[in-house]
Fold this sequence. Notes:
Elements: E1 2-9, E2 12-21, E3 25-34, H1 35-39, E4 46-50, H2 54-65, E5 70-72, E6 83-86, E7 96-101, E8 115-120, H3 124-131, E9 137-144, E10 150-155, E11 161-166
Amino acid sequence: MTWLFVFLAQMHLTFGVIKATEQTGYRLTLMGTKLKSIMNQNIICWFEIYVRNMESAKKFYHAILGTDFIDAPAQGDSPEAMKMAFFSPMENQGVSGALIEMAGTKEGDGACVTTMVYFPCQDCSVEESRVEAAGGKVNKSKFSIGEYGFCSICTDSEGNPFGLFSME
Length: 168
């Protein structure tokens, strides 16, 4: 019989396997890999759904998903008028996201944003420096989002917006 376990050691989650054997009883094997490292392997680390009416959108997603949103003020260099509601607490593992109400994102001018995914990076300025050479555009160069890190907002070669996210 084998069990997967997770434990907290020096503020980093680590995983391993406990295996029952007839000769030795239980054997503990640490995999030596931090879950935080595994989480950083996700190709997407964050998503945003842009809305015209925050309260209406929260009501809709609550009715569909049962989500109790966590309202948050604009972070770092974000516009003060921006409204943000998280789908889940920031400390949750995995990919999470937020509803965003912000002027200019839902104006119907053909350049409106409906959803945006963010790709994790060590330092988003590195990946940002490759965007234009690959045929994309940097819309907003690396900026602070407060205690949550930094991001760059770009457009790919097909006109799709995307973000680059890093803690550095």
